[in-house]
Amino acid sequence: MMRLQKLSWVSVAAFACVLHVSLPTGWAQTVTRLSDLDSVNSGHPQPAPTVPVVFQDEPPIPAPEFDPRQPPPAPRAETRQVVEDVAEEPWTLFRQDNAFKVHGWIAGGITGNARNTTGRFNGPLSFNDRRDEPMLNQLYTVIERPLDTENGWDIGGRADLLFGTDYIFTQAAGLETRRDFSPKWNNRRFYGLAMPQMYLEAGYGDLSVKLGHFYTILGYEVVTAPDNFFYSHAITMQYAEPFTQTGGLGTWNANDNWTFSAGLVDGWDKFDPLSSRAQFLGGASYTPDHEQYSIVCAVITGDEDGSELPVIGNRTLYTIVFSLNVTENLQYVIEHDHGIQSGVEDGTWEWYGVNQYLFYTLNDRWKAGVRGEWFRDDDGVRVAAVRESNLTSPGGYRGNFFEMTAGLNWLPTSNLTLRPEVRWDWFDGQGEPFDGRQSMFTFGVDAVLIW
Question: Taking the domains of the chain in order of start, what are their residue ranges?
Answer without folding.
Answer: 4-34+64-450
